[in-house]
Automatic annotation (TrEMBL):
<dbReference type="Pfam" id="PF00580">
    <property type="entry name" value="UvrD-helicase"/>
</dbReference>
<dbReference type="InterPro" id="IPR027417">
    <property type="entry name" value="P-loop_NTPase"/>
</dbReference>
<dbReference type="GO" id="GO:0006260">
    <property type="term" value="P:DNA replication"/>
</dbReference>
<protein>
    <recommendedName>
        <fullName>ATP-dependent DNA helicase</fullName>
        <ecNumber>5.6.2.4</ecNumber>
    </recommendedName>
</protein>
<dbReference type="GO" id="GO:0000725">
    <property type="term" value="P:recombinational repair"/>
</dbReference>
<comment type="similarity">
    <text>Belongs to the helicase family. UvrD subfamily.</text>
</comment>
<dbReference type="Pfam" id="PF21196">
    <property type="entry name" value="PcrA_UvrD_tudor"/>
</dbReference>
<keyword id="KW-0378">Hydrolase</keyword>
<feature type="binding site">
    <location>
        <begin position="26"/>
        <end position="33"/>
    </location>
    <ligand>
        <name>ATP</name>
    </ligand>
</feature>
<keyword id="KW-0067">ATP-binding</keyword>
<feature type="domain" description="UvrD-like helicase C-terminal">
    <location>
        <begin position="282"/>
        <end position="552"/>
    </location>
</feature>
<keyword id="KW-0547">Nucleotide-binding</keyword>
<dbReference type="GO" id="GO:0005829">
    <property type="term" value="C:cytosol"/>
</dbReference>
<dbReference type="GO" id="GO:0003677">
    <property type="term" value="F:DNA binding"/>
</dbReference>
<keyword id="KW-0347">Helicase</keyword>
<dbReference type="GO" id="GO:0033202">
    <property type="term" value="C:DNA helicase complex"/>
</dbReference>
<dbReference type="GO" id="GO:0005524">
    <property type="term" value="F:ATP binding"/>
</dbReference>
Length: 718
């Protein structure tokens, strides 16, 4: 089979235009990602490129994994290709080149909670009140600066607030570097710096990457954009694909302008548009189009599909969140009885906090589920502790990890002692581990022996790491450190769960050892980048995930829960028109994940964040003409009763009345002549049953063939 066979002409053009810059801008589900996978296969198949000459950037690790799988279905050699996220590609480059920037090549990667901890420490030391400026807001200010490539040295605050950020940023930066570590933003920042400072290294990579591709280009930020541009300057064979309507990472500094500027940066770029949607039914697509229409300044796209009209998206308004989720559970059970698998269903939510109530009910109903949004495995305390041990074994300069485990399990090294040791480390410009080894005797009076034992433990494990695989090393670590013992002797349920989680970590290391050969550095590197969408999928369970993490994915049946003002659009985004537009794009992303069936649900009241919230139905629902959605809530409740309390809410619901159902007992037959209020007269050419309804295809004299739902079409038999 030829690789090009399964593509339409525009997609084919995207695949075959291998030389020179290409911009593919197209709506959801139009096959952009498919073009990239086929493009890679085509480059290999026609021997234009060796696998390692291809760099393909995706947005999540899950997407990278999927892309690799899709490519390996088409050609050999996918394991040698650089198919990964920006972050993972940068880690791979930096592991080789970090020494040019003054880091050790096995630097550590700080995740969000590590980052917050360091920020808190800095703020404390600088006497900055974290009640007034929260660590989170400081973290995001630093993040923004880095995404704009503004280094700690160059950052200059102009007002009081920024001046405080400046102080923290500078101290934070020193600390992280002194620990031989980088945070997520540094990975990109430092790679750009590497290339700026070392033209010869840049040239090597420019030569290597003959073909560069970026998926979800609309969500790249300034530093990522520069990075791609640096690399692409060699061969200029760069193909970026994206959809301006799906840009949802403004808050992380993503800049839709990047997609619009591409033509400026590469005036000879070939621009390709795809307009046919292969994913969703027309009914779903229409709803998506109606919502996104309300955004301003769009490039404007005309998405269409040949997929059948399908079932109307359903809206359900529960009395409370329990009622809402019960409905979802009911529908899942009903659809399951019709032969659907549980893995066909995905529940999308705007805020993580909603997962709790969904979980509660699915548990009670015995419906297996998997969350792709909650506390990630690698963020659990016990996993972080054990990983910190592994980390310090691999990188003795990792002060943060050492501080984390220095007294876990308790070994009598108190906070005061640790502070004193850290101060000496600062003063002498040494790592904490060096101080423990070399200076502790002179600093600490009690607990000297404990410190010696810890140093010995770490050194022993370091030695073992030379010949043990990760699983065996992990086993030695949890035994020798006393971590396992600590949990085993604690008889609480919590300790049992922690122990189970550690056992689960063995599953992870075993798989890693089997597939990757057991190198500790590589293991740490891989898992420091694991994100919430990366947990391996369990067979046959309902998925629950955030709208953000669903980007690029598709599912047969999608529920968007919590479709209420203040939740979606999120309360933080309601005042700012720009952010509101971003919420709308997020809604568009959510709707377009559905292939066959879409449900939108809301609750009139819900217990959330420890109080009862009463929200109006989301404005995004009001933006959809009523006839495009079937309101199932009306069957259970009388809308008027529910909304008797307040004016605006009443108007809101009234504007969303059920369309008047026609009586479909009327026996339509193929060949019958009928008259439609708008389309005039036509002959019925086909009738299909759809549940209680019928889909009838009519060949109208004036407008040609149309498929209509019998219950809603204003038809009379002539
Ligand atoms: P998104 O904007 O959500 O990322 P996308 O544009 O990347 O979407 P894909 O995920 O590549 O779209 O494709 C959507 C679906 O349509 C996939 O299931 C894909 O296999 C299918 N598809 C795309 N093009 C074709 C085609 N020419 N023939 C058959 N199926 C196709
Ligand atoms: Mg895609």
């Amino acid at each position: 089979m030829d690789i090009l066979d399964n593509l339409n002409p525009e997609q084919r053009e995207g695949v075959e235009t291998t030389e020179g810059p290409v911009l593919l801008i197209a709506g959801a589900g139009s096959g952009k990602t498919r073009v990239l996978t086929h493009r890679i296969a085509h480059l290999i198949g026609t021997q234009k490129a060796k696998p390692w000459q291809i760099l393909a950037i995706t947005f999540t690790n899950k997407a990278a994994k999927e892309m690799k799988e899709r490519v390996s279905d088409l050609v050999y050699g996918s394991e040698d290709m650089w198919i990964s996220t920006f972050h993972a590609a940068c880690v791979r480059i930096l592991r080789r080149e970090a020494k040019h920037l003054g880091y050790d090549n096995n630097f550590n990667i700080y995740d969000t909670s590590d980052k917050l901890k360091v920020i808190k420490d800095c703020a404390k030391e600088l006497d900055i009140d974290t009640k007034k400026i929260t660590p989170r807001s400081i973290a995001s200010a630093i993040s923004n600066a880095k995404n704009q490539l503004l280094s700690a040295k160059d950052y200059q605050g102009s007002n009081l607030y920024e001046k405080q950020i400046e102080k923290i940023y500078k101290m934070y930066d020193r600390r992280v570097k002194a620990n031989n570590a980088m945070d997520f933003d540094d990975l990109i920042f430092e790679t750009v710096r590497l290339f700026r400072l070392n033209p010869d290294i840049l040239e090597r990579y420019q030569q290597q990457f003959k073909y560069i591709m970026v998926d979800e280009y609309q969500d790249t930020n300034h530093s990522q954009y520069l990075l791609v541009n640096f690399l692409a300057k060699g061969h200029k064979n760069i193909c970026v694909v994206g959809d301006d309507d799906q840009s949802i990472y403004l808050f992380r500094g993503a800049d839709v302008a990047n997609i619009l500027d591409f033509e400026k940066d590469y005036p000879d770029a070939k621009v390709i548009k795809l307009e046919r949607n292969y994913r969703s039914t027309q009914c779903i697509l229409s709803v998506a189009n109606e919502v996104i229409k309300h955004n301003e300044g769009r490039k404007g796209k005309n998405l269409w599909t040949e997929n059948c009209a399908g079932e109307k998206p359903v809206f359900f308004h529960g009395t409370d969140h329990i009622d809402e989720i019960q409905f979802i559970a009911d529908e899942i059970t009903k659809e399951q009885a019709k032969g659907r698998k549980l893995s066909d269903f995905t529940i999308l939510i705007r805020a993580n906090a909603l997962t709790r109530s969904i979980e509660d009910i699915l548990l009670k109903r015995d419906i297996p589920y998997q969350i792709f949004a909650g506390t990630e495995f690698f963020n659990r305390k016990e996993i972080k502790d054990v990983m910190a041990y592994l980390s310090i074994i691999s990188n003795p300069a990792d002060d943060l990890s050492l501080t984390r485990i220095i007294n876990v399990p308790r070994r009598g090294i108190g906070n005061k002692t640790v502070e004193r040791l850290a101060a000496v480390a600062d003063e002498k410009n040494k790592t904490l581990f060096e101080v423990l080894k070399e200076d502790a005797d002179g600093i600490v009076s009690r607990g000297k022996d404990k410190i010696k034992q810890l140093v010995m433990l770490i050194e022993n494990l370091q030695e073992m790491s030379q010949y043990l695989n990760v699983t065996d090393l992990l086993d030695e670590t949890v035994n020798r450190s006393g971590y396992r013992n600590m949990l085993q002797s604690d008889k609480t349920d919590e300790a049992k769960i922690r122990l189970e989680n550690i056992e689960e970590l063995f599953t992870v290391t075993k798989e890693f050892d089997n597939t990757h050969g057991g190198n500790l550095d590589e293991f740490l590197q891989q898992n420091s980048l694991a994100s919430d969408t990366d947990e391996s999928e369990r067979e046959d369970s309902v998925k629950i995930m955030t709208l953000h993490s669903a980007k690029g994915l598709e599912f047969p049946v999608v529920f968007i829960a919590g479709f209420e003002e203040r939740l979606f659009p999120h309360i933080r985004s309601m005042e700012d028109p720009k952010e509101l537009q971003e919420e709308r794009r997020l809604c568009y992303v959510g709707i377009t994940r559905a292939k066959e069936k879409l449900y939108i649900t809301a609750a009139q009241s819900r217990a959330l964040y420890g109080r009862v919230e009463r929200n109006k139905v989301s404005r995004f629902l009001e933006e959809v003409p009523k006839n495009l959605i079937e309101d199932k809530s009306i069957k259970k409740y009388s809308m008027d009763n529910l909304y008797s309390q307040s004016g605006p809410q009443r108007a809101n619901v009234n504007s969303f009345k059920m369309p008047q159902k026609q009586n479909i007992d009327m026996a339509y037959k193929v060949g019958m002549l009928v008259e439609h209020k708008k389309f005039g007269q036509g002959i019925i050419t086909e009738i299909k049953s759809l549940g209680e309804d019928q889909k009838i295809t009519i060949n109208f004299e004036k407008v040609g063939s149309k498929a209509l739902m019998a219950s809603f079409a204003p038809l009379t038999v002539v």
